[in-house]
Specification:
binds adenosine monophosphate, 5 strands, alpha+beta, single chain, globular
Length: about 120
């Protein structure tokens, strides 16, 4: 899949549409999910153009990967105490709807097994 510059997260990165920003540095942007599935539901995205987790891991350099996950950890520590769920949906069958790589940080409620 080719990266689509008109996806909603690309527009957020270009500040063409607003977001509720939690954290930003040179590599990542974190903001609240518009349709939260938990009291805390934050999305973390790399600033580079990657469609999915696989695309990110296959094409990003090791430093970019390290910076991204360091950012995720920093955001998680900021928005939660210790307990949170970290999710990425890789591909539409898995539930991916926005084709700019992102992870979800969910916290603030008791979460059971991922699948019933
Ligand atoms: P996924 O289904 O894993 O691709 O996750 C995409 C997420 O983006 C969903 O949880 C949506 O609620 C969220 N989302 C879509 N548009 C926006 C937006 N404009 N601002 C914040 N979150 C959004």
């Amino acid at each position: 899949m080719e990266y689509d510059d008109n996806n909603v997260f690309a527009k957020i990165l270009r500040e063409e549409i607003p977001c509720n920003k939690i954290y930003e540095n040179d590599s990542v942007l974190a903001f609240n999910d518009i349709a939260p599935a938990a009291p805390t539901h934050v999305l973390v995205i790399p600033k580079g153009k990657y469609t999915s987790f696989f695309d990110f891991m296959n094409r990003a350099g090791i430093q970019e990967v390290q910076q991204f996950f360091a950012g995720v950890s920093k955001v998680a520590a900021h928005v939660t105490a210790t307990d949170f769920r970290l999710i990425t949906n890789n591909g539409e069958v898995a539930g991916q709807t926005v084709h700019h790589f992102h992870v979800h940080i969910l916290a603030g409620k008791l979460m059971g097994p991922l699948l019933p």
